[in-house]
Amino acid sequence: AQSVSQHNHHVILSEAASLELGCNYSYGGTVNLFWYVQYPGQHLQLLLKYFSGDPLVKGIKGFEAEFIKSKFSFNLRKPSVQWSDTAEYFCAVISGSGATNKLIFGTGTLLAVQP
Amino acid sequence: KAGVTQTPRYLIKTRGQQVTLSCSPISGHRSVSWYQQTPGQGLQFLFEYFSETQRNKGNFPGRFSGRQFSNSRSEMNVSTLELGDSALYLCASSLSTGARQETQYFGPGTRLLVL
Protein backbone atom coordinates (compact mmCIF):
# COMPACT_ATOMS: atom_id res chain seq x y z
CA ALA A 1 0.00 0.00 0.00
CA GLN A 2 1.11 3.53 -0.67
CA SER A 3 2.40 5.45 2.30
CA VAL A 4 3.92 8.80 3.15
CA SER A 5 6.51 9.28 5.87
CA GLN A 6 7.33 12.51 7.62
CA HIS A 7 10.44 12.09 9.69
CA ASN A 8 10.05 14.96 12.11
CA HIS A 9 7.01 14.99 14.35
CA HIS A 10 7.93 18.13 16.24
CA VAL A 11 10.30 20.90 15.20
CA ILE A 12 11.17 23.96 17.24
CA LEU A 13 13.03 26.82 15.57
CA SER A 14 13.89 30.40 16.33
CA GLU A 15 12.76 33.15 13.97
CA ALA A 16 15.04 33.60 10.95
CA ALA A 17 16.27 30.01 11.15
CA SER A 18 16.07 27.87 8.02
CA LEU A 19 13.53 25.09 7.78
CA GLU A 20 13.60 21.75 6.06
CA LEU A 21 10.87 19.16 6.66
CA GLY A 22 11.39 15.70 5.26
CA CYS A 23 8.81 13.72 3.31
CA ASN A 24 9.21 10.33 1.64
CA TYR A 25 6.61 8.29 -0.20
CA SER A 26 6.51 4.64 -1.09
CA TYR A 27 4.83 4.53 -4.51
CA GLY A 28 7.01 3.95 -7.56
CA GLY A 29 4.65 5.02 -10.33
CA THR A 30 3.15 8.36 -11.25
CA VAL A 31 2.71 10.60 -8.24
CA ASN A 32 1.35 14.04 -7.57
CA LEU A 33 2.82 15.59 -4.44
CA PHE A 34 1.47 18.19 -2.06
CA TRP A 35 2.28 20.07 1.09
CA TYR A 36 -0.65 21.29 3.17
CA VAL A 37 -0.53 23.50 6.25
CA GLN A 38 -2.93 23.82 9.15
CA TYR A 39 -2.50 27.03 11.15
CA PRO A 40 -3.94 27.03 14.66
CA GLY A 41 -7.72 27.26 14.45
CA GLN A 42 -7.76 27.37 10.66
CA HIS A 43 -8.63 25.09 7.77
CA LEU A 44 -6.16 22.84 6.09
CA GLN A 45 -4.79 24.79 3.11
CA LEU A 46 -2.48 24.05 0.21
CA LEU A 47 1.10 25.36 0.42
CA LEU A 48 2.38 23.96 -2.87
CA LYS A 49 2.04 21.06 -5.26
CA TYR A 50 4.09 19.14 -7.83
CA PHE A 51 2.71 17.37 -10.87
CA SER A 52 5.42 17.46 -13.50
CA GLY A 53 8.19 19.61 -14.93
CA ASP A 54 10.63 21.56 -12.80
CA PRO A 55 11.23 19.48 -9.66
CA LEU A 56 11.71 22.63 -7.60
CA VAL A 57 8.30 24.11 -6.88
CA LYS A 58 7.52 27.35 -5.15
CA GLY A 59 4.48 27.88 -3.02
CA ILE A 60 2.88 30.54 -0.91
CA LYS A 61 4.58 32.45 1.90
CA GLY A 62 8.11 31.78 0.66
CA PHE A 63 7.95 28.00 0.90
CA GLU A 64 9.45 25.70 -1.71
CA ALA A 65 9.85 21.96 -2.14
CA GLU A 66 12.09 19.76 -4.22
CA PHE A 67 10.95 16.52 -5.82
CA ILE A 68 13.80 13.98 -6.00
CA LYS A 69 12.43 10.98 -7.83
CA SER A 70 15.43 8.73 -7.13
CA LYS A 71 14.99 9.28 -3.39
CA PHE A 72 11.17 9.21 -3.40
CA SER A 73 11.35 12.48 -1.52
CA PHE A 74 9.56 15.81 -1.52
CA ASN A 75 11.14 17.94 1.20
CA LEU A 76 9.72 21.30 2.20
CA ARG A 77 12.05 24.25 2.74
CA LYS A 78 11.97 27.85 3.80
CA PRO A 79 15.15 29.92 4.15
CA SER A 80 13.95 32.05 7.05
CA VAL A 81 10.96 31.18 9.21
CA GLN A 82 8.70 33.62 10.99
CA TRP A 83 6.65 33.26 14.13
CA SER A 84 3.54 33.17 11.91
CA ASP A 85 4.78 29.92 10.35
CA THR A 86 3.88 28.09 13.54
CA ALA A 87 1.53 25.39 12.30
CA GLU A 88 1.19 21.72 11.45
CA TYR A 89 2.53 20.69 8.05
CA PHE A 90 1.31 17.68 6.11
CA CYS A 91 2.89 16.03 3.10
CA ALA A 92 0.45 14.19 0.83
CA VAL A 93 0.47 12.17 -2.37
CA ILE A 94 -1.98 11.12 -5.04
CA SER A 95 -0.66 7.99 -6.69
CA GLY A 96 -1.53 5.74 -9.59
CA SER A 97 -3.32 6.52 -12.81
CA GLY A 98 -6.82 7.67 -13.47
CA ALA A 99 -9.01 10.41 -12.18
CA THR A 100 -8.85 10.58 -8.42
CA ASN A 101 -8.49 13.09 -5.66
CA LYS A 102 -7.57 10.50 -3.05
CA LEU A 103 -4.88 12.10 -0.92
CA ILE A 104 -2.64 9.92 1.23
CA PHE A 105 -1.26 12.04 4.04
CA GLY A 106 1.81 11.77 6.19
CA THR A 107 1.43 11.99 9.95
CA GLY A 108 2.27 15.67 10.03
CA THR A 109 5.02 17.82 11.52
CA LEU A 110 4.22 20.32 14.22
CA LEU A 111 6.41 23.38 13.80
CA ALA A 112 6.80 25.89 16.60
CA VAL A 113 8.69 29.09 15.82
CA GLN A 114 9.96 31.01 18.81
CA PRO A 115 10.12 34.81 18.49
CA LYS B 1 -16.75 32.99 -3.18
CA ALA B 2 -17.84 31.10 -0.10
CA GLY B 3 -15.59 28.28 1.04
CA VAL B 4 -16.45 24.71 1.87
CA THR B 5 -18.98 24.60 4.66
CA GLN B 6 -19.64 21.71 7.00
CA THR B 7 -22.49 21.21 9.41
CA PRO B 8 -22.73 20.68 12.23
CA ARG B 9 -19.39 21.90 13.54
CA TYR B 10 -19.60 19.91 16.76
CA LEU B 11 -21.52 16.81 17.65
CA ILE B 12 -21.78 14.57 20.68
CA LYS B 13 -23.28 11.11 20.30
CA THR B 14 -23.35 7.91 22.31
CA ARG B 15 -22.18 4.48 21.26
CA GLY B 16 -24.59 2.65 19.02
CA GLN B 17 -26.19 5.78 17.61
CA GLN B 18 -25.83 6.93 14.04
CA VAL B 19 -24.80 10.32 12.72
CA THR B 20 -25.07 12.26 9.46
CA LEU B 21 -22.61 14.98 8.55
CA SER B 22 -23.11 17.45 5.75
CA CYS B 23 -20.74 19.20 3.37
CA SER B 24 -21.47 21.99 0.91
CA PRO B 25 -18.66 22.39 -1.62
CA ILE B 26 -17.49 25.60 -3.18
CA SER B 27 -19.92 26.71 -5.87
CA GLY B 28 -19.09 24.98 -9.15
CA HIS B 29 -17.02 22.24 -7.56
CA ARG B 30 -18.13 18.76 -8.48
CA SER B 31 -15.83 16.54 -6.47
CA VAL B 32 -16.19 16.06 -2.73
CA SER B 33 -13.86 13.96 -0.61
CA TRP B 34 -14.11 13.05 3.05
CA TYR B 35 -11.27 12.49 5.51
CA GLN B 36 -11.06 11.43 9.13
CA GLN B 37 -8.46 13.13 11.32
CA THR B 38 -7.44 11.62 14.65
CA PRO B 39 -4.36 12.13 16.83
CA GLY B 40 -3.40 8.48 16.50
CA GLN B 41 -4.05 7.78 12.82
CA GLY B 42 -3.68 11.24 11.32
CA LEU B 43 -5.60 12.14 8.18
CA GLN B 44 -7.21 9.18 6.48
CA PHE B 45 -9.21 9.14 3.27
CA LEU B 46 -12.79 7.93 3.61
CA PHE B 47 -14.33 8.33 0.16
CA GLU B 48 -14.65 10.61 -2.84
CA TYR B 49 -17.74 11.51 -4.81
CA PHE B 50 -17.94 12.97 -8.28
CA SER B 51 -21.18 13.61 -10.13
CA GLU B 52 -23.18 11.70 -7.51
CA THR B 53 -21.00 8.59 -7.91
CA GLN B 54 -18.48 7.23 -5.47
CA ARG B 55 -15.19 7.38 -7.31
CA ASN B 56 -12.88 6.09 -4.59
CA LYS B 57 -13.18 4.49 -1.19
CA GLY B 58 -10.73 4.19 1.67
CA ASN B 59 -10.24 1.32 4.09
CA PHE B 60 -13.10 1.96 6.48
CA PRO B 61 -15.82 -0.46 7.55
CA GLY B 62 -19.22 -0.47 5.91
CA ARG B 63 -20.63 1.53 8.83
CA PHE B 64 -19.20 4.54 7.04
CA SER B 65 -21.18 5.56 3.99
CA GLY B 66 -21.77 8.63 1.94
CA ARG B 67 -23.66 10.12 -0.92
CA GLN B 68 -23.65 13.14 -3.17
CA PHE B 69 -26.62 15.05 -4.42
CA SER B 70 -27.21 16.63 -7.82
CA ASN B 71 -26.15 20.04 -6.46
CA SER B 72 -22.80 18.45 -5.39
CA ARG B 73 -23.59 18.70 -1.69
CA SER B 74 -22.51 15.58 0.13
CA GLU B 75 -23.40 13.75 3.29
CA MET B 76 -21.61 11.06 5.17
CA ASN B 77 -23.25 8.69 7.59
CA VAL B 78 -21.76 6.61 10.35
CA SER B 79 -23.99 3.94 11.81
CA THR B 80 -23.58 2.05 15.09
CA LEU B 81 -21.08 4.54 16.44
CA GLU B 82 -18.04 3.30 18.34
CA LEU B 83 -15.78 5.22 20.72
CA GLY B 84 -13.02 5.06 18.12
CA ASP B 85 -15.13 7.06 15.68
CA SER B 86 -14.43 10.19 17.70
CA ALA B 87 -12.55 12.40 15.28
CA LEU B 88 -12.52 15.51 13.17
CA TYR B 89 -14.24 14.77 9.86
CA LEU B 90 -13.02 16.95 7.02
CA CYS B 91 -14.61 17.54 3.69
CA ALA B 92 -12.70 18.80 0.66
CA SER B 93 -13.96 19.95 -2.71
CA SER B 94 -12.38 20.53 -6.09
CA LEU B 95 -13.50 21.46 -9.56
CA SER B 96 -12.61 18.02 -10.86
CA THR B 97 -12.58 18.16 -14.59
CA GLY B 98 -11.26 14.62 -14.29
CA ALA B 99 -7.67 15.68 -13.91
CA ARG B 100 -5.73 15.28 -10.70
CA GLN B 101 -3.95 18.59 -10.90
CA GLU B 102 -6.58 20.48 -9.01
CA THR B 103 -6.37 22.02 -5.63
CA GLN B 104 -8.63 20.53 -3.02
CA TYR B 105 -10.16 23.06 -0.65
CA PHE B 106 -10.88 21.87 2.84
CA GLY B 107 -13.71 22.83 5.14
CA PRO B 108 -13.41 23.53 8.87
CA GLY B 109 -14.52 20.02 9.78
CA THR B 110 -17.10 18.47 12.06
CA ARG B 111 -15.75 17.39 15.41
CA LEU B 112 -17.55 14.24 16.53
CA LEU B 113 -17.30 12.96 20.09
CA VAL B 114 -18.69 9.53 20.84
CA LEU B 115 -19.38 8.79 24.51
Instruction: Note the run of SSEs of chain B as H and E.
Output: EEEEEEEEEEE
* Class computed from helices, strands and strand pairing of chain B: mainly beta
Classify the helix fraction of chain B into a percent range: under 10%
The end-to-end distance of chain A, rounded to whole angstroms, is 41 Å
Number of strands of chain B: 11
Described by the principal axes of the CA atoms, the overall outline of chain A is globular
Helix count, DSSP H or I runs of 4 or more residues of chain B: 0
Give the assembly state of these chains. Answer: heterodimer
> What integer value in Å does the Rg of chain A equal?
14 Å
Outline of this structure?
Chain A has 115 residues and is an all-beta fold.
Q: Can you tell me about this structure?
A:
The complex is a heterodimer of chains A (115) and B (115). Chain A is built from no helices and 12 strands. With 115 residues, chain A is an all-beta fold. In chain A, the strands form 3 sheets. In chain A, strands 2, 5, 6, 10, 11 and 12 form a 6-stranded mixed sheet that branches. In chain A, strand 8 and strand 9 (73-78) form a beta hairpin. Chain A is globular and about 45 Å long. By secondary structure, chain B is mostly beta strands. Chain B contains no helices and 11 strands. The A-B interface holds A 32, 36, 43-46, 49, 51, 90, 92, 94, 99-108 and B 3-4, 31, 33, 35, 42-45, 48, 50, 55-56, 58, 90, 92, 94, 96, 98-109.
